[in-house]
Amino acid sequence: MTMLGIIRRNWALRLSVVMNVFVLLYVCVHIGSLGPWIEEAPTSWAQPLVEVSKATELSATASLPEGSKAGSTRETGIGSIQDGKSAASSAATKETAALTMRDKTGKDNEEVQGGKSGNATTTQKQQESVSTTMGSMTLEEAIPCNDRSTTPKTALRGDYWVLYNYVPMSTKVRCWESVTYTTHADYTFLDNLEPLLERWQAPVSVALYAPGTDFQPTVDTIKYLRICGSPLVSQLVTFHVFFSTKHIPKTVPSSSKVLSEGWNCTLPPPWANVTVSKMYKSEKKLLYPVNVGRNIAREWAPTHYVLPSDIELYPSPDLASRFLEMIRRRDQQPLYKPNPKVFPLSIFEVSADSQVPRNKTQLQKMLKAKTAIPFHKKVCSGCHNVPRSKEWQEAPETEGLHVFHVGKRTGAFVHWEPIFIGTNNDPLYDERLSWEGKSDKMTQGYTLCVLDYDFLILDNAFLVHKPGIKTFKKDPVRDMLTGKTNALIKKIIMPELKVIYGTRKGCAV
């Protein structure tokens, strides 16, 4: 081989080595980039995707506090004791996992409260975040629940026989389709049923106290209302009847027999011209078991959401449909807090010669004219002292329904007896308390406080008592019963509640 050939061969070898080195370096660099490190997506798009994924996966828990599917606590009967702490804790855990909304700084979004100063831009962004995250939902998706049977059933409940679904409504309703107004009465109060229905236009579950000879006029009143009254009665009202084991009627006709019998509509309603003192319960000096009736009507409501109220309290029109639309929208931050929650309604009285207002604007005019006042203002103002009530009364009416303010039953509101839209996961009323002894909702209020309930006060919804403003009247017999009730609560009921639910600073009866 010539010298020139040897030189060329050496340069070719050197060039090959250099090329191989470059190839090895290139391969090493790319292999290293595909190693055990995973590149994170940019925060600007990764975080919303995570939130949407969580909201979609756990949308079933996004409803108001359930703890479990509706119906799980309804079947236990009164012989069992609900562990309210456990239920509230379970609901809070589920909702916290699914619903806690975080902003880009990692801090929890603040509550949206009407009448409270704050950063409007931030609030708007928070609302948009919720709306974007959850998207649109159907009512069935927004309210996971189980349908309840409306088949008549007879059973003992403590010292009371109860005819559940004794005369059921004819309309079939799914548990998520509406809100049930649950209430109690004896037959002399059923003149309130039609005006209530005219405004409510949704299911009503009413428990009627009918001991002894009060039973037959109670059945007659049911027939009269269903046959001679508004068609809404047979369509939307379910009647339950209960009486003490010591005061059983002589005969109890079957549900089918009551439904098949007619009524002479030329006769006056059975409650007309009744002397209360001549009623069986009056002659036997029986106390009215108000909380037995409340619990019966509430537990046997066909829908998940319920409004436990008194039959003389008339709701603002379209309340049920507007409430459900608010739940379906889910565009308000207070709905996503992990605390258990209920929706209290502001309550008012109007003068005897006034018409019941149909909207907040009419109510505001009546408040200014002094023909309407806050409920029980002249009897027990502290019992219905709603947080931010003055701001609520001054705030103009708006479209739809929204959370005006998130309150607590503490401080100046420690004796508040709210009437609210809730569910059957909420604590029941203590059935040892009577209407005559007063304070019949106070122990439930204490339990709600200890369980750290949020009270989401609604902006355009309210209740109005049957016309006629109540004034305080001295009643020695009732004062005596009130004293006995207070002693029962202090010595027996409160120690029990502290054992079962515990205590919380600021909570009292």
From TrEMBL:
Biased composition (Basic and acidic residues): 101-110
Bias-annotated ranges (Low complexity): 85-98
Keyword Transmembrane helix: yes
One Pfam family cited in the UniProt record for this chain: Glyco_transf_49
UniProt KW keywords: Membrane, Transmembrane, Transmembrane helix
UniProt keyword annotation of Membrane present: yes
Segments crossing the lipid bilayer: 12-38
Coiled coil segments of this chain: none
Tree of life domain: Eukaryota
Protein name per UniProt: Beta-1,4-glucuronyltransferase 1
Organism: Neodiprion lecontei
